[in-house]
Amino acid sequence: MTSGWGVWALLVLAVPGGCLPPGGLLFPFGLEQGDAELEPGDDVNSPPLDLSTPLRFYGSSIYSLYVATNGIIAVSKPTGEEEYLGQLPLSFGGIAPFLADLDTTGGRGKVFYREDSSPHVLQLAADYIKRGFPNASFDPNSVVIVTWDSVNNSQKPDMYSRNTFQAVLASSDSSSYAVFLYPEDGLQFYATHSKNANEKNLATVGFSEASTKYLFWVTPGSYNTVANDEESIRNLHQSSNSGKKGIWVFELGSSSSSIEPAKILHSPDSLEYGNYEQHQDVTSKPPISYQDSIEISEQEVPYDVPSRGDIEQHITYRVPQPAAEDYLQSPNQPVTRPPPAKPRLPTAKTPPRQFQHQQFPQQHPQVIDVEEFDETGIVFRYNTDFQQTCANNRHQCSAHAVCQDYPNGFCCSCLAGYTGNGKQCVAEGSPQRVNGKVKGRIFVGNNPVPIVFENTDLHSYVVMNHGRAYTAISTIPEVLGYSLLPLASVGGVIGWMFAVEQQGYKNGFSITGGEFTRQADVTFLGNNEKLIIKQKFSGIDEHGHLTISTELEGKVPEIPFGASVQIEPYTELYQSSSSVITSSSTREYTVTEPERDGISATYTAAYQWRQTITFDECIYDDSRHAVSSTQQLSVDSVFVLYNRDEQILRYAMSNSVGPISDGSADINRNPCYTGTHSCDTNAACRPGTGNRYTCECSVGFRGDGRVCYDIDECLEQPTVCGSNAVCNNQPGTFRCECVEGYQFSADGRTCVAVERITNHCVTGTHTCDIPQRAQCVYTGASSFICTCLAGFSGDGRSCADVDECQQDRCHPDAFCYNTPGSFSCQCKAGYRGDGFQCVPGELEKTKCQSEQEQTFSPRGPRPIGQFIPQCDVYGNYLPTQCHASTGYCWCVDRDGNEVDGTRSGPGIQPPCLSTAAPPIVIGPSVRPDTIPLHPGTHLLYAQSGKIEHVPLEGNGMKKSDAQVFLHVPNKVIIGVGYDCVDKVVYWTNISGPSISRASVHGGEPTSIIKTDLGSPEGIAVDHLGRNIFWTDSQLDRIEVAKLDGSQRRVLFDTGLVNPRAIVADPVRGNLYWTDWNREAPKIETSYLDGTNRRVLVKDDLGLPNGLTFDTYTSTLCWVDAGTKRVECMNPTQLSRRKILEGIQYPFSITSYGKNLFYTDWTRDAVIAVDRTISKENDNLQPHKRSRLYGITTAWTQLFKLFYSLSGHNYCTVNNGGCTHLCLATPGGRSCRCPDNTVGVDCIERN
Fold it and tell me: Where would one find the signal peptide in this protein (predicted)?
């Protein structure tokens, strides 16, 4: 190794112009090292850096990263800097070695990045990580190195103040670590200035998990702050958590959902990883030696650090060692450091954890600042030159515990009547509930496709005084459910936590307080399949329930559908030592297969079980160590079941913990230990001599122990919660809740008025000019800024139109027409051109104008009955052409050709759509962008090149608040759909045909499908299966695709002439559409997978344009421009009901509550109809009159769609187990492959 390092160091130094590692700390970087260089700029992000080895971050796997100018590495594509600078958490998630407004424009620094798997870099990364985590066994596969070299302050650049720092991310197959490196003199500024105000924003160092989108809200991810005040930032190069200045090491949540900092609080002797010296004699350093005792003196450790000015210069500094009085021990007594308190995950009541770190002051004794947080969010600050006592750490104990001081620290102990480890306590004998989530990636048998599931619910109920635990895991696919039956220990760990305790022995909760991590390795004997179970218990939540997260990964043997599994009672030995508990055993189970020909096959199988449980324990109370290091868990009455109808996996078992069984039958037979007592479920069983016992009601209950009644504390103590609060009685306890408008103060008990944060841009309470002239930009808290749109000038609160015609923007031979926010140019008579360039000559006539001119030729009289084409003012064919003599009308395409199936008799005009886009506006046009919708339910309706919205109040329209949601100039929008899960609007465009989408929260629209389209018209969203369906009247087909436009598949391309409206019923798995073929109009239906196609309505139809399905009442309604009616029916009963007759020319329809809303071409309006009384009750006519097209309802609350309805969509969870398209049917789902799947690994099945 010595020679290898020497050669490598020489190679680095021999590279001309290569970046030398300043401060002897940084990994080699620069273009010569194979780095990519980020483009110069103020807010630049790299393309996605795809990783060869996934990064394990907050318990998730990250497959690509984004490097940003502003000192962050993002785990998803970052937003604009105005949305995240100066604050954590980051909505997109990221790693921030120095989050600030940085700039590399004009040679003001560079940013380099690469992924590296060369042996010397992997070894160097492993050495750094070993420094911070000496007990970790870590062998990285790849390393990501990001270097910010001499970057500058964005707003106040200074050629002399530059920052250099580096982040190194190392990953193996199972874990990932981060190393932050801050060389000497590397940080020369610690804050940047706001772009919108002369405010100073301090940099931030930390980690942030990406936000999680739920059905109708977004939850910010966990985040951890390393430094966010000037003193901490200033001392980053002088501080450490790994024992050496400027080196910070963190585990990135490999097996849990938290970031773990290194906790090395003293510097090992003469270690110097990463010190690149300019000498040939480069030698490796001796291995790290860790002592149990600390020398009580200030030790001088030489460090060779090349400075920026002179590489040959050497600097020596002192590493102070802890003084004896820091720990209140004699010089001869070994010093044992208490383990630092484990960082709490941030919650709504818990601020982000500030990691502790080591300071290296030059002349003063070492002081370590630490912040702890109690459950109410109170910050307790202390430093380690004082004794840790109960006086400043009482908050770490449970409210049902006492704190006791010991010579070297403090410990917490539960009060009488409670059980636990002192930090977490619950009432003895009271039933307990455990809630959590399960995710997994499991191969079953020989199936090459894994079963992947996420966010699956786990619920457990424990009868503590019987030691019996009932666990249920929901929505486990049938293909996996039976094969997981043998793994009762997935829920068995909950049984161990609350096992009945024999005298002198403790269950898991008494030892850990329900805060621990567990990894179990399961090896199935025979075929050698392996499964890894990772579980994290996070203690008691605000509802008094224990929380757990579970991850399953590996392979299990296949158990046939319908089989049963029996597990005999078993025992297991638990070995404990120093915060670690281990156990291993071999377990057998018996499988009875479903009966075939009157015979049920039975076989026995086995697996080896190894598990490790790690937790934090209090080391100061010697009495805790009196518990036997070896305990036996006895498990009986094991029950396992998979319910295929409910897709629920159930485990149940009874548990007790005690000594190793020797066959004796005295104390072990006490009913308290066997669960055969007659105590109430809310009582504790107290063993006596022999078989005698007594029952004692748990805290919060009264009675004789055999029957216990809940105490209503709210009734007996009316003022227990204080003012501005209400008391809610709960079994065994009570809960205080602040009334609306109040929240708990720092003491966790007093309710104080809430200072509400309002996003004025969303609520519409901002002071910006109207959306047609200005834009409101949210800047955090309750702040916002106003900016004028293009074509307007002002301060954003008042914007005036810019008269571009005063600026001579048009050609001298053209007229200029100023419009709000824009202008247009038109050549004068006798000239032709675009208005910017005009040349003499007349405009060339269009095809329609030429044909029209030939009809009126002066050569002779026009033949009687000759057809004359009709053109619009721009020379395009009108979409509807009519014969003046016969009265027949038909639709034409943009070239004037008749569309098949559209010719109507005299007096009836077919609903033709114009494929010609509106004329292009010369000069600045309206920006294609969305204006965020206010909270609430809205109607969305299309009007040529825009989508407008009107809020719904009750069942009616709030017409005064109607305004534009989306501008898409030069487009003809026809169909509109809405995804109520992600709150995204989808629409079809028939000019330059495409399908696009945009978020209701604002932002630019994106086109998701732009090829192989003719005239896309109707669109429907399957919000459960995450698919879209659309009709194409030119290609005469119906297609389906995923919401992002991928995986397209043609469902129908026969039996269609003029398909238009389409609607999905995802809950029941049905699809409906109209075809206004003039010869045979019809309404059809099928399952969402295209099977069971049939005609639903074919009689008494004219021009069925619009269609809607009311999920609540299972009612299908349509509007018909031929019969002039609104009609409804139940598709399962086939009886039709006329809602309204005599309407004019309806196009599209939607429903909300008791009302139907349809658009009308004659009235240019949205019409509301009360279907309960068959009467029109309101109408909305937009300010600018033109044809209205598609209309849909944007729901504000999605929960009704799930919890108010019967039925189930089997594609909702895990994509229904499909590799590609999952298409629901009334009784299940079909897995389908997209068209053109050459080279795609896709499996089709029902």
Answer: 1-19
What stretch of H or E contains 751?
A: strand 751-753
Q: Is 226 left (phi over 0), alpha (psi -120 to 50) or beta?
A: alpha
Mention every residue, 6+ apart, whose C-beta is less than 8 A from residue 1113.
none
- CA–CA separation, 271 and 1134 (whole Å): 83
- Angle, CA 665 vertex, CA 661 and CA 667 arms, to 5°: 85
Summarised one tens digit per residue, pLDDT across range 379-417 is 333 333 446 788 878 788 888 899 988 888 889 999 888
Residues of the chain predicted below pLDDT 50? 1-23, 266-386, 664-667, 920-927, 1198-1207
Upstream peptide bond of 306 is cis (omega within 30 degrees of 0): no
> What pLDDT does 859 receive?
54
Taking the C-alpha atoms of residue 435 and residue 549, their distance in angstroms, rounded to an integer, is 9
Summarised one tens digit per residue, pLDDT across range 945-999 is 789 999 998 888 988 888 888 888 778 899 999 998 888 999 999 888 999 999 8
SS3 1158: strand
Q: Distance of CA 779 to CAs 78, 221, 494, 766, 785, Å?
A: 16, 19, 45, 12, 7
Q: Provide the percentage of residues in the chain whose pLDDT is more than 90.
A: 34
Cα–Cα distances (Å) from 694 to 84, 658, 706, 1181, in that order, read 61, 20, 9, 78
Q: Considering Cα of 377, then 382, then 384, then 387, what sign does the dihedral take?
A: negative
Q: What angle do CA 509, 511, 514 make, to 5 degrees?
A: 40
Q: Which of 1225, 1197, 1220, 1221 lies closest to 1209 in space, CA to CA?
A: 1225
Give the HSE-up count for residue 109: Cα atoms under 13 Å, Cβ half-sphere.
Answer: 27
- Using DSSP's 3-state secondary structure scheme, residue 1053 falls into coil
Q: How far apart are CA 25 and CA 27, in angstroms?
A: 7
What six digits make up the tokens of 107?
A: 């040679």
Average pLDDT, the chain: 80
SS3 content of the chain, % helix, strand, coil (to 5): 10, 40, 50
Joined tokens for residue 682: 């809310």
Strands lying side by side in the sheet with 1006-1009? 973-979, 984-989, 994-999, 1006-1009
pLDDT-above-70 percentage for the chain: 81
Distance CA 19, CA 655 (A): 62
For strand 49-57 and strand 60-68, is the pairing parallel, antiparallel, or unpaired? Answer: antiparallel
Residue for token pair 């965020």: 932
Shortest CA distance to 789 belongs to which of 925, 921, 920? Answer: 925
DSSP state for residue 229 in the 8-state scheme: S
User: Given this model, what pLDDT does residue 387 score?
Assistant: 61
For 313-346, what is each residue's pLDDT tens digit? 332 333 333 333 333 333 333 333 333 333 333 3
* C-beta of residue 910 within 8 angstroms of C-beta of residue 1078: yes
CA distance 5 to 21: 15
Q: CA 1077 → CA 891, 1033, 1122, distances in Å?
A: 12, 10, 12
Do 493 and 575 meet the contact criterion of CB atoms below 8 Å apart?
A: no
Whether 554 and 535 have beta carbons less than 8 Å apart is answered as no
202's tokens: 């301090």
CB 1064 within 8 A of CB 1045: no
In angstroms, the CA 444 to CA 449 distance is: 8
- pLDDT at residue number 212: 77
Question: Which structure tokens are listed for 1155?
Answer: 């009302």
Residues contacting 716, CB < 8 A, separation 6+: none
Q: What are phi and psi of 23, to 5 degrees?
A: 70, 10
Residue environment code for 317-336, b if the CB has 16+ CB neighbours within 10 A, otherwise e: eebbbbeeebbebeeeeebe
Give the distance from CA 837 to its chain's centroid: 52
Angstrom distances, CA of residue 479 to CA of 508, 531, 558, 640, 900: 33, 17, 9, 17, 48
